[in-house]
Amino acid sequence: MPIDIERLHEGAGVIYNCHGTVTLKDFYDAGNGFLDFPDELGKWRYAIVDLTAVESMNLNYGEVASIVEQNKRLAAGAPPGTLLAVSSPRDIGFGIARMWEALVEQVGWETQTFRSRSDAALWIKQRAKQKFGIDLGDCPSRA
Question: Which one of 59, 65, 96, 123 has the lowest number of neighbouring Cβ atoms within 10 Å?
Answer without folding.
Answer: 65
